[in-house]
Specification:
Elements lengths: L3 E6 L3 H10 L4 E7 L3 E3 L4 H5 L9 E3 H4 L6 E5 L2 E5 L4 E4 L2 E4 L2 E4 L3 E3 L17 H20 L3 H7 L1 E5 L3 H17 L13 E5 L11 H13 L2 E4 L2 E6 L3 E6 L2 E6 L2 E4 L3 E3 L2 H9 L9 E2 L5 E2 L2 E6 L4 E2 L12 H16 L15 E6 L2 E6 L2 E4 L1 H14 L3 H17 L13
Parallel strand pairs: 1-2, 1-9, 2-5, 9-21, 11-12, 11-17, 12-13, 19-22
Antiparallel strand pairs: 3-4, 6-7, 7-8, 10-18, 14-15, 15-16, 20-21, 23-24, 24-25
Helix pairs in contact: 1-9, 4-5
Length: about 425
Amino acid sequence: MSRKHVVIIGAGFGGLYAAKELADKNVDVTLVDKRNFHLFQPLLYQVATGGLSPADISSPIRSIFNKKDNIRVIWGKMESLNNKEKYVIVSGKQISYDILVLATGAHHHYFGNDSWSEIAPGLKSVEDALKIRQKIMRAFEEAEYETDQQKRCEWQRFVIVGGGPTGVELAGALAELANQTLLGDFRKIDPKETEIFLVEGLSRILTTFPESLASKAEKSLKKLGVTVKTGSMVTSIDGSNIKIKTNETTETINARTVLWAAGVQASDISKMVVEKTSAETDKAGKIIVNHDLTIPGYKDIFVIGDLAHFKLKDGSVLPGVAQVAMQQGRFVAHEILGKNNPAKPFHYLNKGNLAVIGRKSAVADIRKLRLSGWPAWFIWIFIHIAYLIEYDNKMKVMLEWAWNFFTRKRGARLITNIGE
């Protein structure tokens, strides 16, 4: 009997963990990604604020599987799907499959205002992080050179849209950059005069956390000088103004730098799959899957991670976080290998939620344990180091964090494209 050929599209957390589980097993695996590296997305905000370099949180995919003979890595982009003849086209070449795993993730969602994307970049890729880092560092440089006081204030005013973990972590890191790291670097401006606004449309930040922890996180942000605006919707963004509506009141914040952390939408692969399989999607374009993570009517096509809409028994939908994708990747691998016998639906084990606010400050919701401050911060560090893929990455990040902690300096504060 010939070995099954499993094609995995996407080497994020879902695709990577599926491939790792299938390594050295009686299947042939082709792992496809448009990047040649796996990115540890939870630490992207550290790159965006100059705490880490991109290489610190990236691992070449080939090096991860260089000793796994049944794993073939292809650098390319999926361009089309033929689900009847069971093949995909990747960068112009045909790859046949017995089983297809789609794990292409999601990108920013501007809720119908795509023109905002150039003004208010999101944080999903290395390119995004470098663009944000450039905007942040450039803002301080422009403020130093600006002679008009009003414009100088606009350059030192930042607005972050979205009060989830990404927005909270960005706000905290940016506040520490202004309040500690940049002190003494400038002659005309005082970085401590920087204003940071965190805008959230719902009634509180960190809605996936218990209210008590969200409240502590908000207090920590306020101690850092961050102004938190909840129940506020963004209605307009241009180069120097952002309009926010709270209840029936609209206010304008004059700010030159706006960062987006408010929502995600399924990758473009979703439209292709829907066209070929008639699969249904939710409002964010995520593909609605069966309880075994397959597309209805197609037992040979799995969808996992941010691309999948998986509904729990209570009617809620699994969030697009790394631990969901990891567990789904392992589950799909076990399905392919026949380990889930008798067949049973995917069961998500919530290991907890973590969000860091700044130096020595974080919140942790782990099973029945709810922590904040120093203890949560230590847990956050341990878990993020543990899940970095390669050993040298772990060592580099540990050394970088230790250096940053004791010196309060961030060494990766580079403006990489002066032309923008």
